[in-house]
Amino acid sequence: MTPETATDTLVARKPLDSELDVYGLTHTGLVRQTNQDHFIISSLRRDVVVHQTSLPPAESQSTTERLALLAVVADGVGSSLMGGEASRQAVEGILNYVSACAKCFYRLEEGDDTELHAALSEAAMRVHADIAKERADGPPEARGMATTLTLWLGVWPYAYLLQVGDSRCYIFRGGSLTQISRDQTVVQDLVDAGVLTRTQAMRSPLNNVLSSAIGGEEAMPVVTRMEQSWDVVGLLCSDGLTKHVSDEQIAERLRTMTSAKQCCEALVQDALDAGGSDNITVVIGRPTPKKVEHPLLHASVR
């Protein structure tokens, strides 16, 4: 085996569980009294293994092979209690619905992801229907409850982004930060239509008004497929981060990160230092290949 062959093998194979550096962090911020954000990081196997979440603790272990890695960020809308309830229900609901369609993952080996695209959109709409029903039938304070939903589903060598609302997904690769998600807001719609410039949009009072939300008047889930590789860092966040921290600053933090945990903590602190006017949630993940020693080459591949 040549060094080039060893490198190609590393790039092609799926990361082991021990080679995934993934971390999530949520903070109430400096102004809000409660945290309406929720997140979860979970392995989807033949069973579900939760690694980290803002939901009540649930420890589980499994020896079965990882089919997919799922990360979700939801930012509640409405009264402080019901907004948080909407985001909690969205995170729990999407985990249940997506894990139930695990059979779709096997079809990917045949190069067909049509069923998975449809299953993700359907999962979002089922969660939307569940929360919309509670909004309609519940107490008066439930009338405004809704939530964003941003989901990353890693099924090597691809990742699938499910987006509703304005929580964001970025990828960092080759020193460049790219926003994969599109903000589903009234202002972004006006920018796309050429009615507002980006500078005008930043100052608009409609900047945080959602045009699509889980449980809201309308939900428009968008599913995007991306290629995964060993040099990609993924980031999900609520707008409590992006209100205060620029894309340039996010890129610099990712460029100099030593671990997902360290980078999450640094970005949350950046948002707090800049005012912390909203709840802040950040989830970061990347593959970190172990050093592999080949007995004939006496060399390592990282």
In short:
The chain has one domain (26-285): Phosphatase 2c, domain 1 (4-Layer Sandwich), CATH 3.60.40. Helix content is 33%, strand content 27%. The chain has 9 helices and 14 strands.
Task: Record keyword descriptors for this entry.
302 residues, alpha+beta, Phosphatase 2c, domain 1, 7-stranded antiparallel beta sheet, 5-stranded antiparallel beta sheet, 14 strands, globular, disordered N terminus, disordered C terminus
Secondary-structure blueprint:
Layout: H1 3-12, E1 20-27, E2 37-44, E3 48-53, E4 68-77, H2 80-99, H3 103-107, H4 114-137, E5 146-147, E6 149-155, E7 158-164, E8 168-173, E9 176-179, H5 186-192, H6 198-203, E10 222-227, E11 233-237, H7 239-242, H8 247-255, H9 260-273, E12 280-287, E13 292-294, E14 299-301
Antiparallel strand pairs: 1-12, 2-3, 2-4, 4-5, 4-6, 6-7, 7-10, 8-9, 8-11, 11-12, 13-14
Helix pairs in contact: 2-4
Description:
With 302 residues, the protein is an alpha+beta fold. The chain has a single domain, classed as PPM-type phosphatase domain (Phosphatase 2c, domain 1, 4-Layer Sandwich). The protein is built from nine helices and 14 strands. Strands 2, 3, 4, 5, 6, 7 and 10 form a seven-stranded antiparallel β-sheet that branches. It has a five-stranded antiparallel β-sheet with strand order 1-12-11-8-9. A two-stranded antiparallel sheet has the order 13-14. Strand 2 and strand 3 form a beta hairpin. Helix 2 runs antiparallel to helix 4. The N terminus and C terminus are likely disordered.
